[in-house]
Specification:
Layout lengths: L1 E5 L2 E3 L21 E3 L1 H18 L2 E8 L4 H10 L3 E6 L5 H12 L6 E5 L10 H9 L3 E5 L1 E5 L2 E8 L2 E8 L2 E5 L11 H7 L4 E4 L30 H10 L5
Parallel strand pairs: 1-4, 1-6, 4-5, 5-12, 6-11, 7-11
Antiparallel strand pairs: 2-3, 8-9, 9-10
Helix pairs in contact: 2-5, 3-4
Length: 246
C-alpha cells in the first residue's frame, strides 16, 4: 500500500502575526515554524499506523522552499519512509493543489492524506482541489479510518451525530481530531530520519489564479468593562449601545 501525506509548514500558534510594510506578505522575522498540527498529529500518524499494519510505504510531501526541510525531517522521524519537496514558494491553495496533483498523478498512491486545514489560513481547500484534479473520491474531516481490502471505512462528526462512509481506494482524505494520537519522535526515529531519502522536484508551470493584494490585522479588542451587579441599567445600556445586542 502506497500512502502520501501532504504536510505544511505553519507559524507556531504563539507567533506574533505581522506583515511587511506594504501588507502583502507575512513577516517571518523571528517566527518559529512548525509542521501543521492537523497534518502531523492525525494524517501522518494514521498513515504510519496503516503502513505498519499492512507493510505499506508512507511518503511525506511538502510544497515549499528548502527552509521547510526541518519539518520534513520531523515527518521522517515520526515514521514516514521517504519524503518529497516540490521546490516552490506557493502563494495560493490552487497552486499548491496543482503541484501535489501533478506529482501524485503517476505515482499510484492508494490514499492521499491531508490534515483537515492549516492553522495559518484555515482554508480546508487543498485536499478537495487535489481530489478534483485527480478525479478521485474525497472525504473531508474524517475522524476514523479503517481498511477492508480496497475499501476505506470512515467516520466523521456531523451535526447531531456521526456519519459512516465507505469509499473505494484510491481516494483523498482530510483528517480531523480522533483519527490518531500524536506521536513524539524518539531518538531512533530522529537518527534514522537523517538517512531517509528526501527528493527535491521542480514545480510544474502554473499561472496563479489568485493574488493577495493586502493583509491586515483585525481591529484590536477593546478592554473588558466590569459592571457592578447592582447597576443593571448600565449593563443594559452597554449591551445595547456598545455590544450592539438588540
Amino acid at each position: 500500500m502506497k500512502l502520501l501525506v501532504c504536510i505544511s509548514q505553519t507559524p507556531d500558534t504563539t507567533a506574533k502575526v505581522s506583515f511587511n510594510n506594504d501588507g502583502t506578505d507575512f513577516n517571518a522575522a523571528g517566527v518559529q515554524f512548525i509542521m501543521n498540527p492537523y497534518d502531523e498529529w492525525y494524517a501522518l500518524v494514521r498513515a504510519c499506523e496503516l503502513s505498519e499494519a499492512t507493510g505499506g510505504k508512507v511518503t511525506a510531501l511538502n510544497v515549499g522552499p528548502a527552509t521547510n526541510e526541518t519539518v520534513i525531517r520531523k515527518a521522517l522521524a515520526i515514521g514516514a519512509d521517504d519524503a518529497v519537496r516540490i521546490d516552490a514558494d506557493p502563494k495560493s491553495a490552487a497552486y499548491t493543489a496543482r503541484q501535489i496533483a501533478e506529482y501524485a498523478r503517476s505515482q499510484g498512491y492508494d490514499i492521499i492524506f491531508f490534515g483537515k486545514e492549516t492553522i495559518d489560513y484555515n482554508g480546508s481547500e487543498v485536499g478537495a482541489m487535489v481530489a478534483e484534479y485527480l478525479d478521485l473520491p474525497y472525504v473531508s474531516y474524517a475522524s476514523k479510518l479503517d481498511l477492508n481490502g480496497s475499501v476505506a471505512m470512515l467516520e466523521r462528526e456531523i451535526e447531531g451525530g456521526i456519519e459512516t462512509l465507505e469509499v473505494d481506494l484510491p481516494c483523498v482524505i482530510s483528517a480531523a481530531k480522533g483519527m490518531a494520537e500524536q506521536r513524539i519522535p524518539n531518538m531512533k526515529g530522529i537518527m534514522t530520519s537523517r538517512s531517509k531519502p528526501l527528493s527535491v522536484v521542480p514545480p510544474v508551470a502554473y499561472d496563479e489564479p489568485v493574488k493577495a493584494t493586502k493583509f491586515t490585522l483585525p481591529p484590536a479588542k477593546a478592554g473588558v468593562k466590569l459592571v457592578s451587579p447592582d447597576n443593571m441599567d448600565e449593563l443594559v445600556r452597554l449591551l445595547h449601545e456598545e455590544a450592539k445586542i438588540i
